[in-house]
Design goal:
Blueprint (H helix, E strand, L loop, with lengths): L15 H13 L19 H15 L5 H14 L4 H8 L4 H22 L1
Helix pairs in contact: 3-4, 3-5
């Protein structure tokens, strides 16, 4: 389990399909580093600045707002729309503060409204 913000352990879940893509990606790389994201010189893990630079490049190329945080919120929104209980979503994202729970409660409420509108 990798460590996230504030050195908090995070479990990273992904689908079988994602696992197949990840395996193919790692097999095609020319290095033997034990990291998924490597630095530009392929000598170690990518640092935060490298990740930020890549996201800024993607954001500019795509013409949309994009950040690691955007991906987290999109992930949470999709889970909420599919009906995953709020407590599970918060646990997957490692949230335990009341402020973060309020944020996801609003997100979950919005997802329920969208689901309701779809059925009406």
């Amino acid at each position: 389990m990798p460590n996230g913000k504030r050195k908090k352990a995070r479990m990273v879940l992904f689908t079988r399909s994602c696992g197949e893509y990840l395996k193919k990606y790692l097999e095609e790389r020319d290095d033997i580093l034990p990291f998924v994201f490597i630095n530009p010189s392929a000598t170690g893990p990518a640092c935060i600045r490298t990740i930020q630079d890549r996201f800024n490049r993607y954001k500019k190329d795509l013409g949309i707002h994009l950040s690691p945080h955007t991906l987290r919120h999109t992930f949470a929104a999709h889970l909420a729309i599919k009906g995953m209980p709020l407590a599970f979503i918060q646990d997957l994202l490692g949230h335990d503060s009341p402020h973060q729970k309020q944020l996801y409660a609003r997100l979950y409420s919005h997802a329920r409204k969208e689901m309701y509108d779809e059925w009406m």
